[in-house]
Design goal:
The protein contains 9 helices and 10 strands. By secondary structure, it is α+β, with helices and mostly antiparallel strands. It is found in: Cytoplasm.
């Protein structure tokens, strides 16, 4: 057993008493703090030069094989050869397992009844979808829809979130601009936890002079921080949906035609 592993076990157990329990020479049970979850980890004699391996996981999840794969992906992302990684792995795993446990324990709500009643056709009616953007396991998909009032925009966005996959997105960032026949205009945006993202979407609508449109960008976080690149993907996917929906002028085609704004 390496000195680095001995020191790491001691350090972790001082932070979270009893969280690393030795089962055999190089196998430990890792208890996730504040959760009913235990991960069995095998270390090599050369750790931290070599990546640890996950042997099993015990959680509230009914699909422990899928949970084990998810945690293994996290371990791959945090491991850097030559550096101890258990603390970073533990903290990242706790975030994921907290989300899984919260979903399992969450009681049925009126929203669940609405989801059951709403058909896929109702939810996605009028929305134009962008091509997905995938970067370091994060996925971005934007949707744009024509709207004529702020109430209609809010209603369409709320209905979109009835879809189970979209509801589970880490962020659903939105913006809309409305111009009525009398010249009165409205605009609004929502970051949904991604600071400044809604404002950037609204700025895109302003730059492209888009009116009477709502745009929603969903992001599913993949466990790796993207930094400023996330805003590039948010804008790129939104623009793609706006172009596909005809809300942004596209370059002339070979016959000289030009797609007009809605």
């Amino acid at each position: 057993m390496s000195e680095e592993l001995i020191d790491e076990v001691e350090a972790l157990n001082s932070i979270y008493p009893g969280c690393m329990e030795k089962k055999s020479n190089l196998i430990y049970d890792l208890t996730v703090p504040d959760l009913d979850a235990k991960i069995q980890v095998s270390f090599s004699s050369t750790y931290p030069e070599e990546r640890p391996h996950l042997l099993s996981v015990r959680t509230r999840s009914q699909d422990e094989a899928q949970t084990l794969q998810l945690l293994d992906d996290i371990l791959t992302n945090v491991f850097v050869s030559g550096q101890v990684c258990v603390f970073d792995f533990l903290e990242s795993s706790r975030e994921v397992l907290e989300s899984i446990e919260a979903e399992i324990l969450e009681p049925p709500s009126s929203m669940d009844n609405e989801k059951a009643e709403a058909t896929e056709e109702d939810i996605f009616a009028g929305w134009i979808e962008s091509d997905p953007i995938v970067d370091r396991k994060s996925v971005f998909i934007a949707r744009a829809a024509q709207v004529s009032s702020a109430d209609e925009a809010a209603d369409k966005v709320n209905k979109l979130k009835l879809d189970r996959k979209i509801a589970k997105a880490t962020h659903n960032m939105t913006a809309w601009r409305i111009k009525q026949e009398n010249g009165i205009s409205f605009q609004d945006c929502d970051d949904d936890g991604e600071t400044a993202a809604g404002g950037r979407l609204l700025h895109l609508l302003q730059l492209t002079d888009c009116w009477n449109v709502a745009v929603c960008v969903s992001r599913w976080y993949g466990g790796i921080h993207l930094g400023p690149d996330r805003f590039k993907h948010i804008n790129s996917s939104a623009r793609d949906a706006l172009v596909k929906g005809g809300f942004i002028d596209t370059p002339k085609d070979k016959n000289g035609g030009k797609k007009s704004k809605k």
